[in-house]
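Give me the fold.
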Amino acid sequence: MFNSGNRGQGGRGGNRGQGRGMGGGNNPGSGPTGNCVCPKCGYKVEHQVGQRCMDLTCPNCNIRLIRE
């Protein structure tokens, strides 16, 4: 009566909590430090915690900054 080939995972949730958290790793945009940079002219400003670089604009080119 018991079909061992059709067992489900049930409520185990085996893969939870395995992703990268905010601010982790060595990729651009990771962590609280770094700079916001204009991709056109190279203007730099220190990144502020809680402030996205893409919300800032370059005073020279008037385009959005990206994370260094």
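The chain has a mean pLDDT of 75.
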